[in-house]
Amino acid sequence: MSVIVVFLLSLSVFVGGQSLGKCPKKETMKTFDPKEFEGQWYEVEKTFYMMEMTASCTSFNFTLNPDGTSYKVHIGTKNRM
């Protein structure tokens, strides 16, 4: 019986953090400066996804558009094959 209770409690904690419904509302950073985000960024970690497994040296170059509301993103990668 106690194993079932522990399992149900664990499941409720997991489901409480995950959701199949609407996305949770998150606050935006109050101190975010879009100009500081510009520039060259490098990928540090990958997921186990076939398209990512064949790529290496992935980098992203973010350029803020003149209106300041969005970025132009250039993605650079090398194919391992």
UniProtKB/TrEMBL annotation:
It comes from the Eukaryota. Keywords: Signal. This is Apolipoprotein D. GO terms for biological process: lipid metabolic process; response to reactive oxygen species. GO terms for cellular component: cytoplasm. Residues 1-17 form the signal peptide. It comes from Macrosiphum euphorbiae. The keyword RNA-binding does not apply. InterPro entries: Calycin.
